Amino acid sequence: MLSMQSYEPKAYDDNAVRAFEWLCAVVERVLTREGEDREALRRLPAGDVGPNLLTSDHVMEYLTHRVASIREMANEAEKEPDVSAAVRTHLERIIDATEHIQSELIEMLMETDEGPERRFTSLTKAQQAVAVLLADGLDNDQLAAELGVSLNTVKTHLSAILRKYGLRNRAQVSDDVRKYLAR
């Protein structure tokens, strides 16, 4: 629900109201599309062995692109010949705000610790699947049952994961994988 309020009567002229209605329509389209996009992401295949991991990096990238599309729509609307000065002013503010938001999102992406991602992506798909389930707290027998592999295969994957991570125990690997998954 969006609302346009003021403490003073007749604070908004027709152009401001139309600009607000346009913005509401854009927000509605973005939110509708977000649900459709989420459903599409859910339907993506998980790959050969490992789960389909949606990380905060993916979300940040998605948001950056969605904000860019809103900015593009505002740019297009601003170029329309019949746009009043008041609406043009509101559109310029939207364009400035979206550019600022995009810059902030990009800065946030650049400030992240790449270590957990680098370590996780160094694993094979099978090792990634083991690491994710390990982070969920599964023991070796549960890992084997969940993945449909032998206990020896699980132990082999765990040894390789510990070696690649340069760590001594599963708890340390679990913590590092959780950091990656939380991104």
From TrEMBL:
Occurrences of domain HTH luxR-type (ranges): 116-181
GO biological process, one term: regulation of DNA-templated transcription
The entry's keywords: DNA-binding, Transcription, Transcription regulation
The keyword DNA-binding belongs to this UniProt entry's keyword annotation: yes
Gene Ontology MF annotations: DNA binding
InterPro entries in UniProt: Sig_transdc_resp-reg_C-effctor (IPR016032), Tscrpt_reg_LuxR_C (IPR000792), WH-like_DNA-bd_sf (IPR036388)
Domain of life from the UniProt record: Bacteria
Protein's name in the database: Helix-turn-helix transcriptional regulator
Species: Kribbella jiaozuonensis
Lineage: Bacteria, Bacillati, Actinomycetota, Actinomycetes, Propionibacteriales
